[in-house]
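Action item from last week, closing it out:
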Amino acid sequence: LRVRPLTCTETRRGDQRIVHSLGDGTVHVSAARHDATFGFSAVFDAGASQEAVFEGSGMRQLVELAIDGFSCTVFAFGQTGSGKTYTLMGPLTQSETRPAAPGLLGLMQRSFACLLEQSRSRGSDLALSASYLEIYNEQVRDLLSPGPPCTLPLRWSKTRGFYVENQLSVDFESLEAITDLLLQALDPVLAGSQRRRTSAHALNRHSSRSHALLTIHVRSRASINPATRVPQPSACPSKQGTLCFVDLAGSERVKETGSSGELSVEANNINRSLLALGHCISLLAKPRGKRTHIPYRDSKLTRLLARSLGGSGVTLMVACISPSSRCLSETLSTLHYASRARRVTTRP
């Protein structure tokens, strides 16, 4: 769980701070007619640095597992404006010409650096490729395709499960190239029809209007005998893992955001898909013997996250909340949502 600081607008407005970290992974919500305590694997309060979140959340272990051949996913969930994109990618003001300060880099960039660090320390040769998708108004769009993103069909097979047909996967010679891709996606010059959808409303000037999924495919090549330059597969077999970063669009109340027209349609689609995700998590949190059918097909988002939520992968959920008294209902909703997700177990 990550609790962002009060914004300048909230402070000027006189909003009260209703969320307090008690240490040992517990957080307390204290407001009129609401007094509740929640427990999580880790709680990061307003003063926590980006590095503290990376090290304390278990993200480094996820990177190591991906290199070892596991399917790993991290997704950020919470109300619009609660700090999800900042946690994953860092400041929205960064670009290729104006990079962020090292201390402000998000989980993505730190994971890329960790991949490089692990590759060097293990002496393994990593082959990297990436795919980048967004789900906008229940349409899956490829963000790596040249020109405006194209809509792609979502398929299912017995061997692959749910997958996106004809999605573009790009090979990278260096981790810096993946970072450049992210900076292009953040660059306001490339925003709109060419990159991920964002808009401004009453609660967030840079509200994500789509769910974005960046998947890094990590293949550890077989070790090479330095004397003969011949691979030794028996000594170190090739492993294929994935590291998927999911930046969910924020839940929002149309009345609070003042959304209308196209923004209102986007908000309804976002909330509908998040509701489907919450329903799947609620059913997955039940003991295995009491589970009924898991309705992954209710939305494109749950279909794409099916393996991460209830399959054989390793998944980290970062729940982001606002401490403001004005956001009480959404904060409680996120805390209950995250508490259910914590009870879900997978078998990697």
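Closing note: The mean pLDDT is 83.
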